[in-house]
Q: What sequence folds into this?
């Protein structure tokens, strides 16, 4: 087996706490949740029946496919209802039972739910008697049965290979997303009996196998024929289909010869997903094993396993271009390298974008910047910034040199390599016009180089790129981006799914990352909202990096789902402006900690039923000075029939504002007193960078009964400030 470096995933988030603010959102799995979709893909031109598992999926009415054209879906409507008669008992008895308090966050069979309740009683001393146990089990088992739906997905013969997102529309609103892949390979499904080495499932390569390690100690064996010298790869996707699976699915691959000798194994190449790169030593029949490292199993342990003479580490050369362009690129990798393909770049793309190729999706840098070309060496003319440069390290001791002309001091530089699936361990050297060395930086592990102040003063500079380990190859591609002080910013919006019942309000958190002289206010808008849904005006001010948008559904709003977006607009000094679209981020729970996962779509939905409660405050405005406190009373008004807890939280607050005494409000209570404190960092209370900025405000959210709802805005102003409603 050829040894290759383990590639760690470049997270879509640097630190969840920095995105969610000082108080993370608690109800991370309250929306309808797709925990598994199987099979998670199909070959172009085929139709497959898929099973969808999850929580709060009862009442699913519609399946939505988001992505390139050519994939359509139809839901098989089933009249499977949840037995709600024991739900109040479950809410009363199980809110403190760790393994059963959030059934929507777990994918278990009905039998596994019964065993889980028994474990809580016998091992955790849950205060549940025999009669109560039986009623709770009935409720959880009926929820599990209602939480599985089926659908038919049709893939057109001309459908572009790559990933789509699947969501369901239910009575409770839109579900979380799950990927569905379109491939060009023959596809097969893992079939029992294949759990013993003496009974492997025979497959013909190349093939893409869809499987599930559905129960503890489950194993899938596959037998195949290979010729001596044949270069084969075995590439399993599990984590890359569902990042949340890392808590229960750690797939491992073992490759055996006909005598049962282990020839190769892998546990983790693309993060938790294994890859085996192997050359057959002789003609013969070989066996591949898929299992969980810890012998766990779950219906959500879904995988797609590509087997054959197939590339798995494809990088594209050149690796960057402008949005809307048609680019001729060459695929580079261990297998299938050298093939030229045409790639059409999306018009609205910005940043790392996955583009379809015959070898599957590959990362490509899309930036609306002038083309700086490739390295020209010491004698080439200086290229004025801003520009996007491209290169490739293909020889030993190669050092690419770029001569750049900087007009504005303080300009930053960013190198893209690992994010482009390049193995380049970049070494960056910067010299001034007199060849005086100014900076030498080496990439840290799997991270690329980002220098915010690469060029401290105007003038000409030399930028030298090489590999720190003196390695090279056709896939050692990279891009250099330098903006020369050109203003720019990016946005992230969480959650990626806003579902609201008629008469309800939910909060959306939008954060901005400003780059190079972006100091003005960013105005946020949400196009394509469902009828009856409105959004509060929102601005990310110069003295904050975030804003909350409140989305409200009118009392008579009809159930609907729309694929929307969050756009931010910035007006530049001297005229012109910048518009950027926010990256949607799904919030999910990992060991009771919030984490974020980038999604392709942002959806807004109106649920069928009004929300089970409302959140109101006893004031709309607080007047504070630094180091001063004030109390706010929160009232939970429950609808008849709802007897669950409501957990209070704050998605984000203005700088320097602390919110204390956040807690659960039990069914017998309806009020809580929060202490709001302005610390020394609340400088906005005394001065603002611009006149006529809207006031700073935040909202209190409550989570319970399967929904998260928000209060009206709570405006915070300093002394002698006049508040105006957002």
A:
């Amino acid at each position: 087996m050829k040894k290759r470096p383990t590639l760690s995933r470049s997270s879509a988030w640097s630190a969840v706490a920095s995105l969610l603010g000082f108080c993370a959102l608690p109800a991370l799995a309250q929306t309808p949740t797709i925990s598994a979709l199987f099979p998670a893909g199909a070959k172009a031109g085929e139709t497959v029946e898929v099973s969808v598992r999850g929580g709060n999926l009862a009442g699913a009415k519609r399946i939505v496919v988001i992505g390139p054209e050519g994939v359509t879906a139809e839901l098989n409507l089933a009249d499977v209802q949840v037995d709600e008669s024991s739900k109040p008992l479950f809410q009363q008895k199980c809110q403190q039972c760790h393994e059963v308090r959030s059934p929507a966050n777990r994918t278990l069979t009905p039998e596994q739910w019964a065993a889980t309740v028994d474990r809580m009683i016998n091992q955790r001393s849950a205060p549940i008697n025999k009669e109560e146990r039986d009623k709770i089990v009935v409720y959880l088992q009926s929820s599990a049965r209602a939480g599985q739906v089926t659908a038919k997905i049709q893939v057109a013969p001309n459908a572009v290979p790559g990933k789509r997102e699947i969501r369901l529309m239910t009575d409770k609103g839109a579900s979380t997303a799950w990927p569905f892949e379109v491939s060009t390979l023959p596809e097969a499904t893992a079939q029992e009996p294949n759990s013993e080495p003496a009974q492997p499932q025979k497959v013909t390569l190349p093939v893409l196998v869809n499987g599930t390690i559905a129960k503890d100690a489950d194993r899938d064996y596959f037998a195949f024929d290979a010729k001596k010298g044949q270069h084969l790869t075995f590439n399993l996707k599990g984590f890359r289909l569902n990042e949340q699976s890392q808590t229960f699915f750690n797939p491992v691959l073992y490759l055996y010869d006909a005598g049962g000798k282990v020839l190769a194994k892998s546990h983790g190449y693309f993060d938790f997903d294994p890859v085996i790169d192997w050359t057959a030593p002789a003609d013969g029949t070989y066996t591949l094993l898929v299992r969980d490292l810890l012998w766990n199993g779950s219906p959500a342990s879904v995988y797609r396993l590509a087997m054959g003479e197939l590339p798995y580490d494809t990088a594209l050369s050149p690796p960057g271009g402008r949005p809307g362009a048609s680019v001729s690129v060459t695929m580079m990798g261990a297998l299938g390298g050298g093939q030229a393909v045409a790639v059409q770049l999306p018009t609205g793309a910005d940043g790392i974008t996955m583009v379809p190729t015959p070898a599957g999706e590959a990362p490509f840098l899309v930036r609306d910047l002038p083309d700086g070309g490739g390295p020209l060496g010491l004698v080439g003319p200086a290229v004025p910034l801003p520009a996007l440069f491209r290169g490739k390290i293909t020889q030993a001791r190669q050092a690419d040199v770029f001569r750049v002309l900087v007009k504005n001091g303080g300009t930053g530089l960013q190198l893209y390599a690992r994010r482009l699936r390049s193995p380049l361990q970049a070494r960056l050297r910067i010299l001034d016009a007199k060849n005086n060395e100014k900076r030498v930086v080496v990439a840290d592990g799997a991270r690329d180089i980002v220098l915010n102040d690469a060029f401290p003063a105007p003038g000409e500079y030399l930028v030298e790129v090489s590999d720190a380990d003196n390695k090279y190859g056709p896939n050692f591609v990279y891009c250099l981006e330098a903006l020369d002080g050109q203003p720019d910013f990016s946005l992230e919006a969480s959650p990626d799914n806003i579902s609201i019942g008629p008469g309800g309000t939910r909060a959306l958190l939008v954060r901005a990352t400003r780059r190079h002289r972006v100091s003005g206010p960013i105005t946020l808008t949400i196009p394509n909202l469902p009828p009856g849904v409105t959004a509060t005006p929102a601005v990310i001010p110069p003295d904050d990096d975030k804003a909350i948008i409140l989305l409200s559904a009118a009392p008579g709003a009809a159930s609907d789902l729309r694929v929307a977006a969050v756009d931010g607009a910035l007006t530049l000094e001297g005229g012109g402006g910048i518009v950027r679209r926010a990256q949607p981020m799904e919030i999910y729970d990992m060991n009771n900690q919030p984490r974020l996962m980038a999604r392709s779509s942002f959806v807004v939905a109106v649920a069928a039923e009004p929300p089970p409660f409302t959140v109101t405050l006893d004031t709309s405005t607080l007047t504070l000075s630094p180091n001063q406190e004030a109390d706010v009373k929160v009232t939970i008004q429950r609808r008849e029939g709802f007897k669950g807890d409501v957990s209070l939280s704050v998605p984000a607050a203005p700088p320097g504002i602390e919110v204390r005494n956040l807690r659960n409000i039990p069914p017998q209570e309806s009020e809580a007193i929060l202490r709001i404190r302005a610390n020394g960092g609340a400088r906005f209370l005394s001065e603002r960078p611009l006149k006529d900025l809207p006031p700073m405000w935040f909202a209190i959210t409550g989570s319970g009964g399967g929904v998260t709802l928000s209060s009206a805005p709570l405006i915070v102003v300093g002394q002698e400030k006049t508040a105006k409603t957002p």
Summary: The chain has four helices and 59 strands. Residues 489-717 form a domain with the Immunoglobulin-like fold (CATH 2.60.40.10).
